[in-house]
Amino acid sequence: MKLSDRITNITGGGSDGWDVFYKARRMIAAGEPVVELTIGEHDIGTSTAILDAMDRAAKGGHTGYAMVPGTDALRQTVADRIQTRTGVPTTSDNILITAGGQAALFAAHVAVCNPDTKAAYIDPYYATYPGTIRGAGAVPQPIITSPEAAFQPTLDDLMAGTAGAVSLLVNTPNNPTGVVYGAETLDAIAQTCIANDLWLISDEVYDTQVWEGAHISPRSLPDMAERTLVVGSMSKSHAMTGSRIGWVCGPQDAIAKMVNLATHTTYGVPGYIQDAATFALGQGDAVEAEVAAPFRRRRDLTMQALAGQNVVRAVPAQGAMYVMLDIRATGMDGEGFANALLDAERIAVMPGESFGDAAAGHIRVAMTIDDAAYVDALARLIAFAREKA
Q1: In this structure, are strands 362-366 and 347-351 parallel, antiparallel, or unpaired?
Q2: Is the whole model's pTM more than 0.90, yes or no?
Q3: Which of 15, 124, 192, 282 is 20 to 30 A away from residue 65, measured at CA?
Q4: pLDDT tens for residues 160-192?
């Protein structure tokens, strides 16, 4: 029997770029000690207060079918949060609760892309972006950026790269680069969307992890609210990665249509998890700052470790829980370096090529282990790179 072209082509017919990660996991399963600096998983875990709220909700009976768009309480809480932070009028009718940010990305592309239309995105990109677009039936169209420009797309990049597309996907603070898009970049994004009549899908799951500058939601720019779908999540802001709880914020009509999609796919998100998310958001900014603090601290430790040498250089690490390192001085590509580092030092990082052509010759390091182990791993990584250079 033959499977559909859509399902067999999600990864584009090749690797999904996670070979080094899977290799490291096999080594760990075999009992080998490996330092994992691969995925964005907090080392602190979800707080006991949030887990207690989830437990109370589950034991209180909120284990049946929840409202497909999301509970009234969570939708309103998310809407209030977004309105307070962006100044854009937002109600619960602008919010769809989803099974994490990934489900939100998929729903957003299904909502705005017809079969075989082009959907643009910035390269480097989070590893699931092209597959999400293919899964929605659209055609991925990367916009290549330059490490010399800190991977920030220019107006010329955007105008040329969105030719023939119906949507543009952006991510700031950015995974994998750690770059935060400034006002000039965001203005270029808005100009491009308006000039080319594009939907903008704005992945803002790292909005609480900003180390330099400020997070600006493109939805808040002039004439952008009615053409923007914002993806948000509790995963990074509250260390609730396994709870799979996120949202899409967008125009009321678009959200209403996306509720129909949710009815025929996930059929909503468990009520007790939504109650825990409502509780978590109600704890305020201080809790989000506490979750972000280890990554701010480790970002500073990274800059200290890299000082005084030129073999390994950091892309401006302005936000998110990763740092992108340029290892081109070793003469190796990212995949070759990552595999060699894993074999020699038992340190697992992600090759830049996992995130697109633009990041070739780079590696992404997740700042997700305790400070002492992280500093030791960085020192070994730098020493290894010097040896190769």
Answers
A1: antiparallel
A2: yes
A3: 282
A4: 999 999 999 999 999 999 999 999 999 999 999
